[in-house]
Amino acid sequence: MSHLAADEPLWLETVVLEEFQPAQGLAFRSRLPSGSDSRWSPRFTTVFEDGKPLERVSRPAVQRAPGAFAIGKVAFLSPSDRSDPRSSSRVYEARLPGRISSAIATSLVFLFFGLHVAVVLLFLPSLLRHRPSAPALLFVGLALAGFAITRGVADRLPLTAGTDLLGERLDRIRDDKDAFDALFLGSSRVYRQLDPRVFDEVFAERGETMRSFNLGTPGTRMFEVLDTARWVLALRPKRLRLLVVDCSSDPMRVERENLQTARVIRYHGVRNTVIFLRAIAASRDSPAEKLVEAGRHLFPAALQIGNVGRGLGWVASATGERSPFVPARNQGYFSLDEQFRQPDRQRYEALELSKRYQDLHSDLEHYGELVRRLPGRQKRRPKLDELEIALFRTLQEEAGNEGVRVVFLIDPRVLPRHDLVAAFELGAVESLLRFDNPERFPALYEPSNRFDIHHLNERTAQIYTRLVAESLLELEESR
Amino acid sequence: MIFTEFRFLFFFVAVFVVYWTLTSLPARKLWLLIASYTFYGAWDWRFLSLIVLSTLVDYCAGLQMAKDRPAGGRRFWLIASLVTNLGMLGFFKYFGFFLDSTESFLDFLGLSLSRPSLTVILPVGISFFTFQTMSYSIDVYRRRLQATRSLLDLALFVAFFPQLVAGPIVRAAAFLPQLRRPAMLSRVHFRPLLGLFLVGFIKKACISDNVATAVDPYFADPAQFTAAAAWLAILLYAVQIYCDFSGYSDMAIACAGLLGFELGLNFDAPYLARNLRQFWRRWHISLSSWLRDYLYIPLGGSRGSGLFTARNILLTMALGGLWHGAAWRFIVWGLIHGGGLLVHRQLFGTRDGESSGVVRWASTALTFYWTCLAWIFFRAPSMSDALQICRSYLFFDSPGSTTIDPAWWLLLAALAVAQIVARRIPRWYATVPAWSFSLGYGATVATALLFVRFEAQPFIYFQF
Question: What is the pLDDT of residue A181?
């Protein structure tokens, strides 16, 4: 008798997991075979190691302890003995809900909503008979007015945004809005690789005054960049003249685990949400996928309309709640090496960073292959993303109206950035500085100069920052 | 699905609108039953089978007991009902506990146990609905309640969603008659009920969840903290559990009220109680009265010697502790309360005593102190941690050096004042002009949402 009450759906299939790739922390990932998908009920997907189930854990947990986690078409696992599934002889299988064709899934979704519509229609005549009285409507209106007035007042109070990594640094900008000439916006490629102190130093060597600040945040995409830029520009900073941007592609994507984070809620205002919904409606996804995707944006939007959690910064500052994030020191920059050195960082973070470091240095052949293949992959026909192009244009236009120039970067990466290159060639991006050329910048691709496959180490980040600053100065001079 | 989630709002609005537009009583009851099963199924639809099984067994047992049978026959059906309900509760809630305890005991004797590999998931709210159904069978057996012939009524009594997963524990005698007469929308007191829901929401989402940020780190590693931090964390936990559980009860009572049902009061400012006897008449009233009527009094209550009464009190409180959780810590929690009740009984008998001024406040403070001592065992992750925390609490002695921000003391004081003021809120709802209530309600919702944590925390009592 075992697992009497194990979670099991009505029907299951078992697939063998192969071709593992290192993921963050202790985790490895493997794509589920074509047609298999854990999306409909990820909590029912179980990964077996030599026939024994691995504990089903959260995504962060699988990075630091044995267990498994499945999302969409990818299974993440951390072996029980912390071995490498690529070299160990262990067999890994996933048991997951049986395949559901998109036709059936779509029918189910329509049936579900159809039932709701049927219920409403069924009771509509009765509802109309119970028409609410005028005073009742007036009181509802008054309650909404009370809500709106209070929300409006709260918006004008100095609510701190400091409950997340980006918010803490936005507080810093708001408190000293006229102190900065340049801001760095984007993903971890900005946060981990552009040191404002070095940047300012290069400008000072040329006799130019420069004070920059890093607002990069891991996983940032173009929508978030635009929203952050708008937030900053709305402050009317007197000295700001430059925005340096390097963000991830796929501008609308929101990871499931980030749905309720302050940073995602922050850019899900009504205006942006309408854009998301229109883009989803125009996409080629199935109706069921569109509904799921729309829900993914409507949820943070609802949290923003309700102002949910915006006062938590008060509680945090009043009670000295220790933020899990690094304070806005070093002008917002935080290298991976520095984080790795932190004595008070949580153990799993250190493990994760250690693993990322080892992933690169224990398999240099894989890294070398990626670098060798890069020029060839860059030559492929670029993919155009109309929404992203519109976002590039909007950012440049709105910043330009305030006298701020936007310069996009492509860092020394090993995967091509087709969308940005295509936008530049199309003229949608005015200024693009590229460092993704191993022949031109061999030092930046030298394995010993990198922290992991995707990021430079602290020392090389300073060299890279210097190169960026010099390129910007050249760009300025050429104008 | 929990009351503080968005999806509950949509769910409840749909249930409310359809319920009040239906005019037939059976249709309304059927609709509520469907809604209740959907609500429970949102956690795990498979455990609906337990609710259905419990309902069917009690329905049959009730009808059989209602027939003029000899006492032995009626007793058989009562036992069948109790075995089913207690069997489910025992298996799903206490299997692991008894297995662990047996293993430890055999280990102590130098024997080893071949432990079966069995993972049992605790169905949400099983302690609540099994106690409800048992009260029905026992009341029918005692002929204090007429067995219902309507399976629909009984099913709805067992599964009624506002109180299904965390109480209040409703008695059949109080609930079934409400199902026999059609509720009228015009008799629903919207203002007090909406106000009560909002108060419950604020208690849970704004106070309990935020206080947890100070409490959880302490209980995760109590040895790291100073004795002052221990005191603060324990007092804050008292606030957290009160706001969490009474907040749920408030919302449950309000939801039921908006559907035309009256559930009894479950909390009545318990921390203002002047002794433990009073505390248990104000804290989780539906459970304490259940334990009194179905356990303490059948055991003999106080109808015997002092020693006999003491045994009954301690047994009732220990089992009350075990009801909360399958661990020795909960039994100790119950015994601390039982011990306190015995001491009070020895000193003051069954009188509450009329006092005023300093004596009154001192007795309230002493009762709160004793309650907090018991909470240590309720919250600590293990017995050894609980003893370590007790050392800090009782002797102000701790090896740790980590502190909790003193600003929490101010918040604690503010919450204490709020507790006193909050008692006046229901009266305020009923008396203020409708326009100011509406305006104030919207403003309070907007303010409350500012302090809601993004990650909704499950209610503490869901695990019981």
Answer: 94
Q: Are B83 and B58 in contact (CB under 8 A)?
A: no
Cβ atoms of A32 and A94 closer than 8 Å: yes
Rounded to a whole number of angstroms, the distance from the CA of B438 to the nearest CA of chain A is 4
Q: Say if A307 is an interface residue toward chain B (CB within 8 Å).
A: yes
Cross-chain Cβ contact B210/A312 below 8 Å? yes
Element (H, E) at A42: none
The distance of A302 to chain B (nearest Cα, Å) reads 9
Within 8 A of B120 by CB-CB distance, chain A residues are 4-5
- State the Cα–Cα distance between residues A120 and A127, nearest whole angstrom: 9
Q: Which residues of B touch A148 (CB under 8 A)?
A: 442, 446
Q: Give CA–CA dist B294/A365, Å, rounded.
A: 73
* pLDDT for position A3: 35
CB-side neighbour CA atoms (13 Å) of B264:
20
Q: How far does CA A160 lie from the centroid of its chain?
A: 22
The closest alpha carbon to A387, from A281, A303, A296, belongs to: A281
Residue B324 known to be catalytic: yes
Among A1, A2, A4, most B C-beta atoms within 10 A, so best to mutate, is A4
Q: Could B443 and A1 be called an inter-chain contact, meaning their C-beta atoms sit closer than 8 Å?
A: no
* Cβ neighbours around B182 below 10 Å, total: 12
Partners of residue A77 on adjacent β-strands: A28, A68
10-residue mean pLDDT series, chain B (464 residues): 78 85 86 88 78 89 81 82 84 72 71 58 76 89 87 91 83 88 82 87 88 84 87 92 90 92 87 89 90 88 82 90 83 92 82 72 90 91 88 85 81 80 72 84 88 65 52
d(C-alpha B326, C-alpha B334), whole Å? 12
Interface of A with B in 126-145 (CB under 8 A): 126-127, 130, 135, 138-145
Q: What is the pLDDT of residues A341-400, one digit of tens each?
A: 765 545 445 556 666 777 777 778 888 888 888 888 877 766 677 788 888 999 999 999
Contacts with B, A 315-344, CB within 8 Å: 315, 318-321
B234's tokens: 């324990």
- Give the pLDDT of residue A387: 80
Burial class of residue A478 in the structure, from the number of CB atoms within 10 Å of its CB (0-12 exposed, 13-18 middle, 19+ buried): exposed
Closest CA to B83 of B48, B121, B115, B53: B53
The gap between the terminal CA atoms of chain B, to the nearest Å, is: 16
Cα–Cα distance, B350 to A142 (Å, whole number) = 51
Q: Which residue of A lies nearest to B44 if distances are taken between CA atoms? A: A7
Query: Does residue A295 belong to the interface with chain B, where contact is any CB pair within 8 Å?
Result: no
Please give the full DSSP string across A346-411, using - where no structure is assigned. Answer: -HHHHHHHHHHHHHHHT-HHHHHHHHHHHHHHHTSPPPP-HHHHHHHHHHHHHHHHTT-EEEEEE-
Q: Which three-class secondary structure state does DSSP give residue B170?
A: coil
β partners of residue A64: none
Q: What 3-state DSSP class applies to B225?
A: strand
Task: Give me the pLDDT at residue A8, please.
Answer: 43
Q: What is the helix (H) or strand (E) element at residue A92, kind and residue range? A: strand A92-97
B92, B78, B111: which is closest to B49 by C-alpha?
Answer: B92
ipTM of this predicted complex? 0.73
- CB-CB neighbors (< 8 A) of A310 in chain B: 450
Which chain A residues are within 8 Å of B442, Cβ to Cβ?
142-150
Show the tokens assigned to B329. Answer: 């810590």
Q: What CA–CA distances, in Å, run from B327 to A377, B117, B302?
A: 60, 20, 28
pLDDT in tens, A283-341: 777 787 788 888 888 888 888 888 887 777 777 777 766 555 555 577 888 888 877 77
Task: Compare CB distances from B451 to A135, A261, A315 and report the shortest one's residue.
Answer: A315
